[in-house]
């Protein structure tokens, strides 16, 4: 049986594009993000979703909660879909990081580099896909919303597309976007990528 995953990147907060938040606490959605989260919930309302999973971080939970409320489903925290652990880079501005040669190495070869004190993208992919495969076994034929973070979602999509980790820059996962993947014993198919739910 085919299980459908709706991967939702958390909606916008006021540090998007300027600060590498990583696993910082207290990063909440702004007015735009709250509006985006409502649009995502409206878009997913008719998809027969029975499970809503979210990263434990505030910005993901605040995106997931309107989805759960719209479809009448309790939101479940899933540690396996948490943001990448960026170690000492967490909370730094992208302008500051641009001067760090380790940051440039990370972006040139995600398959062979690691943030200082953090985890590799291959480690991220392993934890995320392992959780998704267990969810597929637990919910055969079901539809699940998975609210997470841009590169975490990319790691899952790259796996199901059969592409290497270093292809992460070949597509975008925007805030409040939805990417839909069907997974079964026969394999997987990406149905929609980086879909905007904005009206």
From TrEMBL:
**UniProt xrefs under InterPro entries:** His_Pase_superF_clade-1 (IPR013078), His_PPase_superfam (IPR029033), PGM_Phosphatase (IPR050275)
Q: Which GO terms describe its cellular component?
A: cytoplasm
Q: Which GO terms describe its molecular function?
A: phosphatase activity
Quote the PANTHER family the UniProt record gives. Answer: ADENOSYLCOBALAMIN_ALPHA-RIBAZOLE PHOSPHATASE, BROAD-SPECIFICITY PHOSPHATASE YOR283W-RELATED
Protein name, UniProt field: Putative phosphoglycerate mutase
Species the sequence originates in: Microvirga subterranea
